[in-house]
C-alpha cells in the first residue's frame, strides 16, 4: 500500500508538515486528521471526509467540492482560489484564513467563524450566513449578491466595493463596518443602522 493509499483510507492520522501538493485525495477518509502545516496546494480533496480535521495548512487552489468539513479547524489556512462547491462546513472555523478568490457561493455557512479572514473577491453569492461571524474580515470586492446575512456579525468588517445586491442583512450587527462603494441595491437592511 502506497502512502497516498494509506492516507486516503485514514490509516495515517498525523500528517502535520506533509508535502501533498497536487495529490489525489478525492473521497479520502481524513476525519480527525492533523494536517497542520501540510502543503495541499492544488490537491484534489473532492468528496473527502475532513470532519474535525486540523487544516491550518496550504490548500491554495485545492478542490474541496463536496467535502465534509464540519467542525474542521481552518484557522489561518491558505485557501486562496479554493473551490468549495457543495461542501458541508457547519461548525468550522476560518478565523484569519486567506480565502481571497475562493468559491463559497450557494453554501450554508450558518454560524461559521470567519473573524479576521481575508475574503477579498470571494464568491459568496446566495450563501446562507445566518449568525456567521465576519467581524474584522476583509470582504472588499466580494460577491454577496442574494446572500442571507440575517443576524450575521459584521462589526469592523471591510465591505469596500462588495456586491450585496438583493442580500438580506436583517438585524445584522454592522458597527464600524466600512461600506465605501458597496452595492446595496434591493438589500434588506431592516434592523440595522443603514435602514431608511
Structural write-up:
- It is elongated and about 60 Å long.
- By secondary structure, it is largely without helices or strands.
- It contains one helix and no strands.
SSE map:
Elements: H1 3-8
Give the strand tally. 0
- As residue ranges, the low-confidence spans are none
Task: Indicate the structural class.
Answer: little secondary structure
Note the beta-strand portion. under 5%
Order of helices and strands: H
The span between the termini is 64 Å
Which geometry do the CA atoms define? elongated
List keywords for this structure.
little secondary structure; 3% helix; single chain; 196 residues
In short, what is this structure?
This protein is low in regular secondary structure. 3% of the residues lie in helices and 0% in strands.
Amino acid at each position: 500500500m502506497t502512502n497516498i493509499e494509506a492516507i486516503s483510507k485514514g490509516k495515517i492520522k498525523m500528517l502535520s508538515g506533509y508535502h501533498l501538493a497536487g495529490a489525489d485525495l478525492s473521497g479520502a477518509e481524513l476525519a480527525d486528521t492533523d494536517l497542520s502545516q501540510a502543503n495541499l496546494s492544488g490537491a484534489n480533496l473532492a468528496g473527502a471526509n475532513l470532519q474535525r480535521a486540523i487544516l491550518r495548512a496550504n490548500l491554495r487552489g485545492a478542490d474541496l467540492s463536496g467535502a465534509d468539513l464540519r467542525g474542521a479547524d481552518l484557522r489561518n489556512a491558505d485557501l486562496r482560489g479554493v473551490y468549495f462547491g457543495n461542501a458541508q462546513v457547519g461548525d468550522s472555523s476560518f478565523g484569519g484564513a486567506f480565502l481571497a478568490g475562493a468559491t463559497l457561493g450557494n453554501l450554508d455557512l450558518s454560524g461559521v467563524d470567519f473573524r479576521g479572514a481575508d475574503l477579498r473577491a470571494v464568491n459568496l453569492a446566495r450563501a446562507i450566513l445566518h449568525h456567521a461571524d465576519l467581524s474584522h474580515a476583509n470582504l472588499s470586492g466580494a460577491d454577496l449578491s442574494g446572500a442571507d446575512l440575517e443576524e450575521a456579525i459584521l462589526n469592523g468588517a471591510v465591505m469596500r466595493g462588495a456586491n450585496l445586491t438583493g442580500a438580506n442583512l436583517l438585524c445584522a450587527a454592522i458597527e464600524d463596518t466600512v461600506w465605501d462603494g458597496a452595492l446595496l441595491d434591493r438589500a434588506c437592511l431592516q434592523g440595522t443602522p443603514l435602514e431608511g
